[in-house]
Each structure stands twice: as C-alpha cells, then as structure tokens.
C-alpha cells in the first residue's frame, strides 16, 4: 500500500518554527499549515475505516483515532496549547516514581505529606522557580496568611513567587 497518512515530522517542524510566536500567530499558522495535514489524516482514516474490520488491530486503531479526533485537533484552534502532552507527562514523572515510595510509607499521613511536597516542588519548577527558594519564602510567609487572597498570593504562579 505504501500510502503515508500524514508526515508527523512536518507537524513537529511547524511547531519548532512557531515556538516563539504569540498564541494568536501560532493559531493562524497552524490553521494555514498544520490543518491541511491533519485534514488529510482524518480523511484517510475515515476511508480506511469503512474498509477495515472493526475487531482487528487496525480497525481498533482507526476507531480510537476518530473517537479522539476532537482532542487531537484542538491544539490547532488555540495557540497556547502544545501539539502533544510531553511537557505534562514529564512534569508528572516524579509523581509516578514517588508512588512507589508512598506505597511503603509507614503511615497514610506520611504518604500524604510526601505527595504534598512533591506537588509543591513540581509546581514551583513548572512555574520557573527554584524549588528550595520558593519553599523557604512560602514557609516564611504562610504563618502570616489570614485571608483567601493571602493564601492565593503564596501560590507558585502568583506575583510574589516571581519577584
């Protein structure tokens, strides 16, 4: 058969080119250049789906693709979104490693405390902060927080953390 459904390398090349642009510019370029590639993919998938047994591996893959299509194509419409979930998966990798540690924690509260610290550290890193410095500032200011606004100002993505 030898028909290439879509050149995924071309989609990623487009993403590398537009990485530094504004979200609006990214959306515009994605609509112009990436959308035709994705349209070709879904058209080919629909064509093959009608000629493929649904119970076979290819039939299952095509059914999954068409069912998940709105989620796959959503990044075209919003320049803030990434083409894949690699950043999110990399961010949660420490949690996956931590599960083993938490599983053998001596108490439930110890496991919860460990998970809480993992969450704080990874959220700080995701917001471009040095985790140790963030935690020091957090614990210095936390006892003085009284209102919801005070607590919200302590979040890693709040202004204080980036100052």
- Helicity, as a percent range: over 70%
Q: Which word captures the global form?
A: extended
Ranges where pLDDT stays below 50 over 5 or more residues in a row are: none
> What is the ordering of alpha helices and beta strands?
HHHHHHHH
Largest beta sheet, briefly? none
Helix- and strand-based class? Answer: mainly alpha
**How many domain modules?**
2
Whole-number mean pLDDT = 85
The number of helical elements comes to 8
Task: Output the radius of gyration.
Answer: 22 Å
Number of strands: 0
In terms of DSSP E residues, the strand content is under 5%
N- and C-termini, Cα separation: 58 Å
Tell me what you see in this structure.
With 163 residues, the protein is mainly alpha-helical. The protein contains 8 helices and no strands. The chain folds into 2 domains: 8-77; 86-162, no CATH class.
Chain-wise SSE layout:
Layout: H1 8-18, H2 23-49, H3 57-77, H4 86-103, H5 108-126, H6 131-141, H7 148-152, H8 159-162
Summarize the structure.
With about 160 residues, the protein is an all-alpha fold. The protein contains 8 helices and no strands.
Keywords for this structure?
mainly alpha, single chain, 163 residues
């Amino acid at each position: 058969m030898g028909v290439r459904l879509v050149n995924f390398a071309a989609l990623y090349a487009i993403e590398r080119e537009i990485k530094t642009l504004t979200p609006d510019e990214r959306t515009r370029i994605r609509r112009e250049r990436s959308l035709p590639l994705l349209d070709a993919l879904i058209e080919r998938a629909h064509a093959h789906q009608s000629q493929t047994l649904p119970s076979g591996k290819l039939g299952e893959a095509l059914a999954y693709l068409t069912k998940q299509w709105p989620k796959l194509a959503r990044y075209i419409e919003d320049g803030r979104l990434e083409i894949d979930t690699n950043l999110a998966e990399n961010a949660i990798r420490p949690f996956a490693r931590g599960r083993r540690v938490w599983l053998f924690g001596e108490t439930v509260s110890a496991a919860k405390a460990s998970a809480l610290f993992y969450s704080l550290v990874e959220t700080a890193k995701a917001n471009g902060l040095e985790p140790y410095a963030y935690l020091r500032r957090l614990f210095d200011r936390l006892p003085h927080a009284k209102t919801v606004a005070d607590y919200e100002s302590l979040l890693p993505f709040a202004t204080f953390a980036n100052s």
